[in-house]
Amino acid sequence: MSAKQKLRLAILASGSGSNLQSIIDQCQQGLLDAEICLVISNNPEAGALKRAALAGIETICINHREFDKREKFDQAVVATLEKVGAELVVLAGFMRIISTLFLQAFPQRIINIHPSLLPSFPGLHVQLKAIEYGAKFSGCTVHFVDTGVDTGPIIVQAVVPILHDDSEETLAARILEQEHIIYPQAIQWIAAGRVKIIDRQVKILESEPPAATLINPLPSNG
Ligand code: GAR
């Protein structure tokens, strides 16, 4: 019997890449039925590019500043993703809005991690916003990407209490610890074909479906 095919991940990151690192580590430990085929950054200085190179993963910088329109940048990204045969696009601190063109190229195959308990606090600087609002709990959310900003179907969340003396930095650090747990978990559920989207609810199936279903692990809506 042939070994189970690994899900081909492309990871898009703009910053330090600690989420990327957690996925690299779990792939290396054999904990994920997935492999990272490419890391793309829009930022030539991104720590994520260095982390990927250190792990021997192919990298490419597609600098958004070199494109006059979002769609043209996205076209270049999509062409690169298609060339490497990416099956799941993983946004890990990728600070660009995804255009419809990009979404249509990878329907229900783009996921994101966001450092708040969505639907509360979408957008930027959300750890500070949660503190200033006086929320008692924050956390992180892994979700499918749709046409809105941080609005897609939620796969998994982790809750993090907000402490009375938290700063933006201390809260962000505790949320990141949870991100590093739930993002690889969500990827593994998808790789194992256990994720089903019904309207906007995401169901995690109890056990793996028959092998035939695994060829296309993300069933279409409805
Ligand atoms: C993470 O906290 C991630 O949730 C957030 O950026 C950080 C990236 O950290 N993403 C967003 O805010 C997306 N809207 P990392 O580069 O160390 O993985």
Architecture overview:
It is globular, with a radius of gyration of 17 Å. α1 (18-28) packs parallel to α6. Helices cover 34% and strands 23% of the residues. The chain folds into two domains: 1-107, Formyl transferase, N-terminal domain (Rossmann fold, 3-Layer(aba) Sandwich), CATH 3.40.50.170; 112-222, Rossmann fold (3-Layer(aba) Sandwich). A hairpin with a 2-residue loop joins β8 and β9 (201-204). 36% of the residues are buried. It has helices at 18-28, 47-54, 70-83, 100-105, 126-133, 168-191, 211-214; strands at 7-12, 34-41, 59-61, 88-91, 110-114, 137-144, 154-161, 195-198, 201-204. The protein is built from seven helices and nine strands. A seven-stranded mixed sheet has the order 3-2-1-4-5-6-7, covered by helices on one side. A two-stranded antiparallel sheet has the order 8-9. Residues 213-217 have low confidence and may be disordered. The protein is an alpha/beta fold. The structure holds glycinamide ribonucleotide (GAR). Glycinamide ribonucleotide is lined by residues 13, 15-19, 92-93, 113-115, 176, 179.
